[in-house]
Amino acid sequence: MSSAESQQAGGKGDRSGPEAGRMQGHWLFAKLGKRILRPGGRLLTARLLEQAKPASSDDIVELGPGVGATAEVLLRSNPHTYRGVDPNPEGRDAVKDILRRHPDAEYVVADAQDTGLPDASADLVVGEAMLTIQSQEAKHAIVAEAARLLRPGGRYAMHEMAWLPDFTDEERETARKELSRIIKVGARPLTLEGWTELLAAHGLAAEWHDRAPLHLLEPRRLISDEGLWGALRFWRNARRLPGARDRLKAMRQGFQLQGRLMGGIVILARKTAEPADG
């Protein structure tokens, strides 16, 4: 996400009050010790990777590895190479600590729209919780870059947010604005059809998808994602950081309300088709 988008969403424009009240939601979670920052949680990512089938012969690129939770899973397959691409300093040390144990793994400081990596150099590209916060133009640029990196037949595994069916555009826009205000990042989900069309525009054919509710801060999801001790540590850290408990309470309420209209989605696509405009 660009600095301009972050400021527009309120992530850096408000300098007053406790730090916990000003941070973008996902980095507040990370600061409090949460490792699973994806909207559908650990289990939805696990279902996605079961479909993607990372293998020892794969060259894998992960766009925006965050604090490295998915990187750990991908590296268990002992891929031929792994490259995590992220321009942000948050989470970088955590990811590098994971990669040090794998000689064929590399951390690349670059933007997902322009990784600088060679054409057709990946068998699997993974991107989670990054496209939703981008403008439509940036969404296209990132997916185009993923398609450029993939070899023919390569897989693109994504985990984002999607609208649930049967709501009006007005209802969705109201929910989008409210969620953006709460998490201090501009949220711009698409419908399942919107995500599929975005992929198809860059020669990526969606083969499979699954969904999960927006339960990031629900106790059962926290324990599922972080384990019992991890969840207890998260709440203990929240009590110690000024402003964190109030912010988490507001975000949980927001997720409950806006989660009626949206949730996590995972899609596996394959580079088999020509771009829709070509």
From TrEMBL:
Record-linked InterPro entries: Methyltransf_11, Methyltransf_Superfamily, SAM-dependent_MTases_sf
Domain Methyltransferase type: 62-157
UniProt record, GO biological process: methylation
Source organism (scientific name): Arachnia rubra
Keyword Oxidoreductase: no
Protein name: Methyltransferase domain-containing protein
Top-level division of the source organism's lineage: Bacteria
GO molecular function, one term: methyltransferase activity
Region annotation Disordered: where it falls in the sequence: 1-21
Residues in coiled coil: none
Keyword line: Methyltransferase, Transferase
